[in-house]
Design a protein that fits this description.
Rossmann fold, 14 helices
Length: about 350
């Protein structure tokens, strides 16, 4: 049983499709107080063997269900981002209301993680952070997967956007300040590449901050939010190079999507991003402060069609081999089975002790 928020429904649907047919995977929206009685009743009727959630505070909900069942049911949390760094940024630059609510938000998430039997981190880099904070907690990695069917197919099926060549694209949501800081710094790269057109897609709370950083650069074009997935696919197929300039990221799907569209990538060397890029084979990762290296790598791809094509093809195959939902479903089922084995072993030990 998946406990999650309704706005992540597409994510749960993808997981469900990829799991084996003999695995019953249901999603239960929780996140609102008034959903608690109905949700508990549904849990008690369905009697799931494992509870899986991407919202750490809902482990309290799962614990209550476990108490009512009077049975140990494994609770697994899927952590999709670096909650601790994001929370620090919220205290620094959030609205007055968000800063006021931040302590209760932090307590709910940190205690929720502590109540889980296992934490799945969305990249190996994040798993290391989790282990430092919860050294006795069972952990493993579950990347955010991708559905290749949405991104493959003939490029001629999509009409490209009318971008001026050479076109370099950036697609980021500007809702988390540590991520946005990488994009703000990337303006230094753009200033050095006046003959290249940069198309920035996305939106979010800090978009005005981003637009201000690029306001005096005539080679920068803001295109706003794009329809998903068709508009995003057209975007990647209209570019020569995709750039992800971020100050913090764990498993950004845009890198996987761009690679499936055979668009070579150049990205910030932060967080889990290096796990999604094979250096010199599918693209490059670069420290945010190395402006000259950014310029050189982007120009390498713009000036060498053969290199760009080779990296694009290799990037597509790399994502197909490592990050499809089919591959991530294998990881998830392995975590389920391991927790259930541990549960059975603990029950056996308890019986023997009695």
């Amino acid at each position: 049983m998946m406990l999650g928020a309704s706005y992540k429904a597409h994510l749960y649907s993808s997981i469900s499709k990829a799991l084996a047919s003999d695995t019953l995977f249901e999603t239960l929206p929780v996140g609102r107080v008034w959903e608690l009685p109905t949700g508990l009743n549904r849990l008690l009727r369905r009697r799931p063997n494992v509870i899986f959630t991407n919202l750490p505070p809902t482990t309290w909900y799962a614990r209550l269900y476990r108490h009512l069942r009077r049975q140990h049911i494994p609770i697994i949390v899927w952590l999709l981002g670096d909650f601790w760094r994001e929370h620090s940024a919220l205290l620094e630059a959030g609205s007055y209301t968000k800063r006021l609510l931040a302590p209760s938000y932090f307590l709910a998430w940190s205690s929720g993680l502590n109540l889980a039997d296992r934490i799945l981190a969305t990249c190996a880099w994040l798993e290391k952070t989790v282990r430092e904070r919860f050294p006795h907690k069972r952990t493993s990695v579950l990347y955010q997967g991708i559905d290749p069917d949405l991104w493959l197919g003939s490029p001629f099926e999509d009409h490209p956007y009318h971008f001026e060549s050479p076109a370099v694209g950036i697609l980021q949501d500007n809702n988390i300040l540590p991520k946005v800081r990488g994009l703000l710094r990337f303006s230094e790269v753009v200033k050095e590449m006046k003959d290249v057109n940069f198309y920035i897609a996305g939106g979010g709370h800090y978009t005005d901050m981003v637009k201000k950083a690029y306001a005096d650069l005539p080679n920068v074009h803001f295109v706003g939010r794009l329809p998903y997935p068709d508009g995003v696919r057209r975007f990647f197929r209209s570019l020569r190079v995709y750039v992800l300039a971020s100050g913090l990221d764990c498993c950004p799907n845009t890198l996987l999507e761009a690679s499936l569209c055979r668009c070579p990538v150049v990205a910030s060397r932060v967080g889990g991003i290096p796990e999604l890029v094979v250096e010199g084979e599918t693209g490059w990762t670069i420290p945010n402060a190395e402006t000259d290296t950014w310029v050189d790598r982007i120009r390498d791809l713009l000036n060498d069609n053969e290199l760009a094509s080779r990296l694009g093809h290799q990037g597509q195959q790399f994502v197909l081999d490592r990050f499809s939902w089919k591959m991530q479903a294998i990881r998830l089922l392995s975590a389920f089975k391991e927790e259930l084995r541990i549960d059975v072993d603990q029950d056996s030990e308890d019986t023997s002790a009695r």
